[in-house]
Amino acid sequence: MTVEITEATRFDLDIDGPSALELMSTIREFESRLPTYSEEGLIRGSTHPSVGMEAVAVGVSWALRASDSVASNHRGHAHCLAKGADAGRTLAEILGRRDGYCGGKGGSMHIGVKELGLLGTNGIVGAGIGLATGAALAAQAQGTDNVAVAYFGDGATNQGVLAEAFNLAAIWKLPVIFVCENNHFAQSATLEEMVAQPDLRRRGEAYGVPSVDVDGMDVEAVSNAAAEAVQRARSGQGPTFIVADTYRYLGHMAGDTEIYRTAEQVEQWKGRDPIARLAKRLLDSTVLDEAQLKAIATSALTLVDSAEEFAKSSPFPDVSSAFTQVSEDYR
Ligand SMILES: Cc1ncc(C[n+]2csc(CCOP(=O)(O)OP(=O)(O)O)c2C)c(N)n1
Ligand SMILES: [Mg+2]
């Protein structure tokens, strides 16, 4: 069984079949290697792994097509891979190499791929919210039925742009899906420390945006919520706010001492692991047998091995290219 995160597999992604499992396993393997790359000095600057959160990106992307826009955040590699980005070119960008999507000049937090509708990963917390809302306005003005997704964390809900975006999207019925990955921390601060009303769904409701809570550790639940939201957006009925309950297993970034949480809490969340859950469901329903599950795990390893080889062997960009590929015309 081979896994290729390509346009074709993305469109055919059968959420109950092996494809979602393959994609989540690949993202897991890809993201799990990042702290080591940082320790080895292969990554300059910070990078934020999303291990544990795979079901959100995969579940949402299942409902999307290439012409739909995605505005990501600082923890955004999974959003890119799930939307069809090649693992080798994504990693090359993270490592600052010439074969990266932006010629190695963007790095982890500036991965933009116009042909995949990726408006970019983004180091400014909350910035993607405005970008996706603008992309939705453009889609509407151009008379297309494309939609836009904004991924952001629980911490980003305290950025003022969310209030403006919710309101404009609601009154103009913009085709935008706001996806909050509530992993319960903004760096070291818990949601309860940051807000007096931790029921984030109510924020969307206050602005007249249909809002839903979803188990972000269950890819099927996420994909169902996303499908409904995308259908609403494509048919001119406006935005949706999806609050996905999820958790990051690794630190905020490489080197995080994680003194703000207990090992027990991490283990507890691992009990809800989205990959193990889907694997069990596929096994129990005899869609896959043990050998096929093993093949998927091996295949994810192999794919990430070759992505790593590709990225590491790519040269650094030449200084003469310093002013190319630093911006993109998205019209
Ligand atoms: C505007 C802005 N403020 C602060 C930061 C520093 N910062 C980077 S990540 C982060 C936490 C974001 O938390 P959340 O939105 O919940 O996303 P998570 O890291 O949990 O995925 C902060 C405060 C930033 N990058 N941009
Ligand atoms: Mg968070």
What is bound: which ligands? thiamine diphosphate, magnesium ion
Query: Which value, in Å, is the CA radius of gyration?
Result: 19 Å
Second rung of CATH, namely the architecture: 3-Layer(aba) Sandwich
Helix vs. strand class? alpha/beta
Work out the helix count: 14
CATH superfamily: Thiamin diphosphate (ThDP)-binding fold, Pyr/PP domains
Q: Which topology does CATH recognise?
A: Rossmann fold
User: For the residues shown, what is the average pLDDT?
Assistant: 93
- Spell out the helices and strands N to C: HHHHEHHEHEHEEEHHEHEHHH
Summed up, the domain count is 1
User: Mind telling me the CATH class?
Assistant: Alpha Beta
Your description of this structure?
The chain is of the alpha/beta class and 331 residues long. It has one domain: Rossmann fold. The chain has 14 helices and eight strands. Strand 5 and strand 6 form a beta hairpin. It starts with 6 loop residues before the first helix and ends in an 18-residue tail after the last helix. The N terminus is likely disordered. The site of thiamine diphosphate has 15 residues, from strand 3 and strand 5.
